[in-house]
Amino acid sequence: MAFFSEHVPFVLDQVKKTFGNQAPTAAGKVPFEIIVKDSQSSAGRASEVAAELILKDRVSVLLATSTPETTNPVADQAELNGVPCITTDTPWEPHFFGRHGDPKSGFQWTNHFFFGASQLTTTYLGLWGRFATNKRIGVLWPNDGDGNAVSGLFPKAFEKAGFAVVDPGRFDLPVGSFAAQIASFKSKDVDIVNGVLPPPEFATFWAEAGQQGFKPKVVSVGKATEFPSAIAPLGQRAVGLSVPVFWSPDFPYVSAMTGQSARELAAEYETVSGRQWSMTLGFKHALFEVLFDVLRRAPDPRSPERLRDTIRQTKYNAVTGPVDFQMPGLPPGISKTPLAGGQWQKGGRYPLELAIIDNADEPSIKTTAAPMTLG
Prior knowledge:
Helices cover about 40% and strands about 15% of the residues. With about 375 residues, the protein is α/β, with parallel strands linked by helices.
């Protein structure tokens, strides 16, 4: 999952420029060190390095991002060992219920902010309502944390909205061929494809779809189409792909850590890195925003219990939107963030640029383009 971690060096440099090595706290400035570990996209490895950070490095707080395979085992280690933990960039249901959380009590040491499944259904239905289709959805939901979570949540919501779901069933990753799924979709006259796949798997599916003459009208596959570098190899066939947008320069939020708007943050990243922005940039930045807001309010940042309690009291406006770990209607320690509907369209500065075409989940996020046909 290298796509998910490409912003880390840039954000760490921002932290260094902003704070040096002294964090402002309610008890005065305290020195800090950030230790970075790579989960290697493995749940076992994520658990191992989290335990190492706790037991060997004696960290005061754990941070983790990007997919249940990383955030869940890290949070489990934090809960087991009594270490404050903040995670993000995993839909909150796979993170929370994937760890067998109790919605009434939540977890004691772990807190998470990201969008949820109900927002995804709102966003997908908003996106698909902008196209003329037969309302038949073919789904690609793998046998992993994300796939298992959405397969239990999406069908009823889609069917209630008048869509028919064609589900060939769960499958293990990696996948060598999607021939069986494509044959099923063609036989059921599917107009819409939905899924949650890593970029390599989607590239395989989309190439085979072209080879087998499968031409859906709408393709909305999460995870796979979030990154410019992941869809660039698809060339013209990437034009018109739609995707939930959990952060973009068009979001109307500002970082209190650097004072940058979402657009200014993206522009600085592009200038420094020479690469196009992608959605995870906002959440890598916001994770450290939240951390340093917690430290700023912490009466004793060296006390695990007081740091834990300060995290839970967070009410903060990040570059990704509001973060509130006591948000009404959600489990304790969970905060949901805004979502929009996007589509990859031909760009000016870059060959493909992500436009906002639907704002059903959060009307304060303005649309930037009209929907266009696929391909």
